[in-house]
Each structure stands twice: as structure tokens, then as C-alpha cells.
């Protein structure tokens, strides 16, 4: 299954050092599974679901997608909107049969982000890629259409 899987990593590099770690973990997991991947950068976490929807609607959709980014709480309600709407957008896609891995960190501070993103610690990029591969396998098992 994974040997032929094509996965698009959609990354929001707003916090570049965090996103680099998430990407490294995701790529390692996909490489280990024999999957092929491409990367698309978008401005922020809010844009991740839209980019995936565009790729999915294109002529040659990927087998799965991994959204990677980081949102750190600030002094305004912006955090709540970005976190909630990016999660809702990805869930909407998932419910349509799109195989996804959710790798958007939603944290209180940069220390928490680093602990979750770093490949030697939380490695959430790897976990998100592994979730994507599991959802590709589930879709294939049930013969679900997209």
C-alpha cells in the first residue's frame, strides 16, 4: 500500500524552526514506509485546509495529505479562530474521504511547540504522516470513494 502512496505535505512555515522539525519527522516516516511525497508551503495554518482542498480537486489528487504547522497562543482571540477553523476545515475534508494526517500544533508557547515538534522528542510530524498512511489504508480497505 504505502509503496505506491503519494502524499502531499502542506506546511505553514510561520515558525520556521518548528515546521522544519515537523517536516523532517513526516518525511522520515513516509520514506520508511516507501511512500513518495511532495511539499507545498502555505502562509499559515489557516490556509492548510484550503490548499488540500485545491490539490484534492485537481486533475491528479494525492493519495493523502499531511497538514503541518504551529499556532501559538497570543494576547488576542486570533489563536482560537485559527486553531478552530483549521481543525474544522481538515475534519470536513476527512469526512469527505480525504486521507489526512493532522500535524498542526496548537500550543501556549514556543517551548511546548519545540517539545512536540522535535524529531528527538514529540515527533508530531512523524505521527501525522503515520496517521495519513493509516487513513489511506483504511480508505483502500473499505473501497471508499473520495
In words, what does this structure look like?
The chain has 146 residues and is of the alpha/beta class. The chain has one domain: 3-Layer(aba) Sandwich (Rossmann fold), CATH 3.40.50. The protein is built from 5 helices and 4 strands. A 4-stranded parallel sheet has the order 2-1-3-4, with helices on both faces. Helix 1 packs across helix 5 and helix 2 packs parallel to helix 3. The mean pLDDT is 95.
Q: Brief description of this entry?
A:
With 146 residues, the protein is of the alpha/beta class. It is built from five helices and four strands; from the N terminus they run E-H-E-H-E-H-E-H-H.
List key phrases describing it.
single chain, 146 residues, alpha/beta, Rossmann fold, four-stranded parallel sheet, 4 strands, globular, riboflavin biosynthesis, transferase, LS/RS_sf
- Level of helix content? 40-55%
CATH domain topology: Rossmann fold
Strand percentage: 15-25%
Order of strands, widest sheet: 2-1-3-4
What is the overall number of helices? Answer: 5
Please render the helix and strand layout as text.
Blueprint: E1 6-11, H1 16-33, E2 36-41, H2 48-57, E3 64-72, H3 78-95, E4 100-107, H4 110-117, H5 124-142
Parallel strand pairs: 1-2, 1-3, 3-4
